[in-house]
């Protein structure tokens, strides 16, 4: 049964069942999403496939005990999501190319692997869309960059958008910007977790128990993010409201700013960008 709010998606095959595929499939499990034709998932290990097979509407197969699991999964699927490591994409495409039906849309989440590389590896009747999601997709709070390839129609891109909108927001960008986007939102959750880890260590060093430190830091991050989302104020304004003139926060902010946080983020994201370019060249 479906009503006006139900999101209808055609048969989808996920090649690779790791963190990223798991996060997206979790979103598809929503009661308002109906994947007609079902969700097929493949992994290398049978144990992983067995875990995915327990999910509603999912059939899962492992290459370690079914050599044809990948070509079988894509046969008849309208949308094929490549969720393997970047260096594995060429081999997977070579394996499935002959089984892709005309009109199939192949959407890759792999960092760095270009549209040109993928288009060259599949039949001309198959469209390619490059994407860059992030792991908060697992809780419906992802943000995904999407770039259509040269053969992708507006409907093809809309289909990929619809998939990723089940797990958060979608931003369409030209492919030339996708690696940059990856350094911000693709990798970004890791930067936030690192800050939380370090801040928690500081709280422990100030004499709080591990449990207290996690509560203090965790709620501070969550509370600040929710305050930002709820008020729609600029972060600089919300920071000003914490920073009493002549008070304590002002002293801490002075120390943080003296460490050139902005230069640090520039250098960190430049390093991620350089690695994306290496991945594109197969390194
Ligand atoms: N983890 C993240 O935050 C993000 C990852 N990505 C991209 O997602 C892709 C996957 O990353 P993760 O999920 O983190 O990796 P992962 O290592 O957790 O998952 C990879 C999966 O691919 C499977 N696999 C490997 N070779 C296979 C084959 N030939 N056939 C079928 N399955 C095969 C593995 O068994 C594993 O389940 C990467 O290309 C990465 O660049 C993109 C955005 C964010
Ligand atoms: O670290 C990586 O290569 C992937 C892409 C963005 C997040 N994880």
Characterise this structure.
The protein has 283 residues and is an alpha/beta fold. The chain has 2 domains: 7-174, 3-Layer(aba) Sandwich (Rossmann fold); 188-279, ProC C-terminal domain-like (ProC C-terminal domain-like fold, Orthogonal Bundle), CATH 1.10.3730.10. The protein has 12 helices and 10 strands. The strands form 2 sheets. An 8-stranded mixed beta sheet has the order 5-4-2-6-7-8-9-10, with helices on both faces. A two-stranded parallel ribbon has the order 1-3. The model has no long low-confidence stretch (mean pLDDT 95). The site of (2S)-3,4-dihydro-2H-pyrrole-2-carboxylic acid has 4 residues, from helix 7. 1,4-dihydronicotinamide adenine dinucleotide binds at residues 15-21, 42-45, 48, 63, 70, 83-86, 88, 92, 109-111, 132-135, 186.
Helix/strand layout:
Elements: E1 7-9, E2 12-15, H1 19-28, E3 33-35, E4 39-43, H2 46-53, E5 58-62, H3 69-74, E6 79-82, H4 89-96, E7 105-108, H5 115-121, E8 127-132, E9 142-148, H6 154-165, E10 168-172, H7 178-186, H8 188-205, H9 210-231, H10 235-242, H11 248-258, H12 261-280
Parallel strand pairs: 1-3, 2-4, 2-6, 4-5, 6-7, 7-8, 9-10
Antiparallel strand pairs: 8-9
CATH superfamily of the largest domain: NAD(P)-binding Rossmann-like Domain
Count up the domains.
2
Q: Helix and strand string, N-terminal first? A: EEHEEHEHEHEHEEHEHHHHHH
What's the CATH C level of the largest domain? Answer: Alpha Beta
Domain Pyrroline-5-carboxylate reductase catalytic N-terminal: 12-112
Pfam families: F420_oxidored, P5CR_dimer
Subcellular location: Cytoplasm
GO molecular function: pyrroline-5-carboxylate reductase activity
């Amino acid at each position: 049964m479906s009503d006006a709010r139900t999101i209808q998606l055609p048969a989808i095959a996920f090649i690779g069942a790791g963190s990223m595929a798991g996060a997206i499939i979790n979103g598809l499990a929503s009661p308002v999403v109906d994947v007609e034709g079902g969700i097929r998932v493949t992994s290398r290990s049978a144990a992983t496939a067995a875990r995915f097979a327990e999910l509603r509407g999912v059939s899962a197969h492992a290459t370690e005990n079914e050599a044809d699991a990948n070509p079988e999964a894509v046969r008849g699927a309208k949308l094929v999501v490549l969720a393997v490591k970047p260096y594995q994409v060429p081999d997977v495409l070579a394996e499935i190319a002959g089984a892709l039906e005309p009109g199939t849309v192949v959407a890759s989440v792999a960092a760095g692997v270009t549209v040109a590389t993928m288009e060259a590896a599949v039949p001309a009747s198959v469209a390619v869309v490059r994407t860059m999601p992030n792991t908060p997709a697992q809780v419906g709070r992802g943000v995904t960059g999407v770039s259509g390839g040269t053969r992708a129609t507006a409907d093809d891109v809309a289909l990929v958008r619809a998939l990723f909108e089940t797990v958060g927001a979608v931003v369409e960008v030209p492919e030339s910007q996708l690696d940059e986007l990856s350094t911000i939102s693709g990798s970004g959750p890791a930067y936030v977790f690192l800050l939380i880890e370090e801040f928690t260590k500081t709280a422990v060093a100030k004499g709080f128990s591990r449990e207290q430190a996690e509560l203090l830091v965790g709620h501070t991050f969550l509370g600040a993010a929710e305050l930002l989302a709820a008020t729609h104020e600029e972060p600089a304004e919300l920071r000003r409201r914490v920073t009493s003139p002549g008070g304590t926060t002002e002293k801490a902010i002075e120390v943080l700013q003296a460490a050139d946080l902005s230069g640090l983020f520039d250098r960190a994201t430049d390093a991620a960008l350089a690695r994306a370019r290496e991945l594109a060249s197969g390194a």
